[in-house]
Every structure is written in C-alpha cells, then in structure tokens.
Amino acid sequence: VADTIIFTPENRLAKILLNVDAPMAHQLIQQADVRVAQLADVIREHVVNKLKKVLDLAGATEADLLAECKAIGANATEIAEVAGAAGLETIGEIARGVAAMVENQVKRGLWHGEALRLHINTLSLVSEGASENPAADAKLADELRVLRKAIGVIE
Amino acid sequence: MLAPNTRINLRRAKILVVEDNPLALKLLTEALNGLRVKSVQPCTSAAEAREILPGEPFDLIIIDAEMPEENGIDLVRHIRGAPTYPNFTTAVLLVSANTPMDMVTQARDAGANMVVKKPLVPGVLLPRIEWLARQNRQFVSTDTYCGPDRRFKSGPPPPGVAERRADALALTSDTTRALSQDDINSLFD
C-alpha cells in the first residue's frame, strides 16, 4: 500500500538501560515504595471523603440514584485510582466495580439500581471494617464481580 | 519479567504525566521521583499537555484515560497525528482504574504502547517502563492508524491466506534469475 510508512524510530527511553553502575530494580522499587507510603494518610483521608459522597446516596430512591449516577461514578473512580496504594485494595476494587456499572449505564443504558445499591452498601460495610477480616472482604468483592458479570456489566 | 537485579538509571529520563485527579498525579509523581526520575512534567488536563507537547521531546508520556473534558485516548490520537512534533513516536503509557476490553482496544488503535491499570505503584510501574525501554517495535503510519506496530506474534498467515509478499519471496528465492527494475522496486513498496 503506497500510503503505508513503516520505520523503526529511536527509542529515547532505551537510555535508562545503558548504565552499568545504576541502582538495581529492587532497590528502586523499595525507595519508591517508601515515598508512596508517605502518602498513605493523605490517600486514606481522600478515600474517606469520596466514600462519604457515595455512601450518602445509599438510601436514595431509584430515581435519585439514577439522577446522581454520574457523580457516583466520578467519586468511585477517584477512589479506585488511589485506594490500592494505601492498602485499601478491596475498597478500591469495589469502587472500580461501581464506576464500571455507571459507565455501562452511561454508554450502554444498562441500569441495575439494586445491584448498584448493593455495591454501595458493601462499600459501607467494608470501609467500616465490619467483617474485621480482609479475606472475607476480598470474597465480597469477588462475589460482586460475579454479580456484575451475570447482569451484563462489561468491564 | 523484570529481574530484581536489573540495573536501571532513570535519572536522565524526561516523563510527561497527564492526570486530572490531583492525588493520583501526586501519587504517580512521587512513585517516579522515588524511582529517581528527575524530570517529571505534570499536566492536569489534555489541553495543558497539548500546549507543551509541540515544544519539548519526552522519553515517556503517561496519560490518564479518564479525564473529564478531553479523554486520554483522544490525546494519544493527537500525539500520533502530529508527525512533525518531537513526541510523534514517543512511548505512551495509558493508565486507567477501569480497563474494559473496548477501552484497551481503542487505546491500542489510537497508538498507545501499553495500557496499565491504576493505581500505579512502583512495583507495577517500573517493570512496564523497563519493558518499554527494551522495545524496538516498528512504527506504522497509514491513513487509518499511526503508532507502534500492533502485531506481536510472528507466525505464518492463517490457513487459506497467502503470504503478503509471496510473489516477491518466490522471485527472490530464484537465484538464477536477474531482477528487472520493476522487480527490484516491488521489493521496496
């Protein structure tokens, strides 16, 4: 095809591999993990604030839930983007599921209000540490993932 | 997979980060600084990135897929649609909390080198950067696609499909035959 151009560009990132006296990967990750860990309190506070906005709608009517779903999705996305970096993986995963449900509503018109409410209530339980068992919380997140798949949520 | 004892020097790497969530931006910046990247250029919107991109070459561009005004996939298309800009072929890593198949496909077809799920912690980020650094992928520019070669597998064509240059290959395999100029030209099409 005359309009097709194929070439091999310079990979400018390749220079990071050229230094034999550079630090090793595990050292770099360790140092970076320390810096990320210093943000943990800020992340947890942020997650609590965003969670409050989502949980405030747990008792909302179906119509209100639908009307507010974009805001719910935005807050859930903000939680999912950072929660795992502060050890809140399960909250991040459930929030990601909420964001996926909202995205499916917005893009495909797929609406399951009760399933969304169940996600929100589960977020409340997990964030309050009701189970006191991280494995049980993770199991809840898994079950919600199965539920989303069953009702046709694409994620 | 990145071996723990692989030596990597990110000090001289210049990385552009486009992320609308301030805390996610802070998290990513801290992770990169912790990996000893000295030059991290933060942007909080695609519009801000569009102003910077024409004037400064970066070694890596990390873009949030989900931004409220212009999303990350559109920004990737903008980068790959500007052949005279210094970042036309720069490696682009698209990041997103939610990574459904259609989004990943769109990102790939927009010209992104890789899609990574958030949150981007150092143990996730560094192996991806190292993988991109080792890549020597060809770059393809057509009317409908511009970006790194999307074909990773190197194998024979599917059953019933002829090799794309079967005629040329047959021609060159005949060592007794002198090539005409047209034959030669066809090998460079």
Summarize this structure briefly.
The complex is a heterodimer of chains A (155) and B (189). Chain A has helices at residues 25-37, 40-55, 62-67, 69-82, 89-108, 113-127, 134-150; one strand at residues 5-7.
Written overview of the protein:
The complex is a heterodimer of chains A (155) and B (189). Chain A has 155 residues and is mainly alpha-helical. Chain A is built from seven helices and one strand. The longest helix of chain A has 20 residues, at 89-108. The model of chain A has no long low-confidence stretch (mean pLDDT 93). Chain B has 189 residues and is an alpha/beta fold. In chain B, 35% of the residues lie in helices and 16% in strands. Chain B is built from seven helices and seven strands; from the N terminus they run βαβαβαβαβαββαα. Chain B has helices at 22-34, 46-52, 72-80, 101-110, 122-134, 166-173, 181-187, and strands at residues 14-18, 39-43, 60-64, 91-96, 114-117, 139-141, 146-148. Chain B has a five-stranded parallel beta sheet, with helices on both faces. A two-stranded antiparallel ribbon of chain B has the order 6-7. The longest helix of chain B has 13 residues, at 22-34. Chains A and B meet through strand 1, helix 1, helix 2, helix 4 and helix 5 of A and helix 1, helix 5 and strand 6 of B. Strand 1 (5-7) of chain A pairs antiparallel with strand 6 (139-141) of chain B, so a sheet runs across the interface.
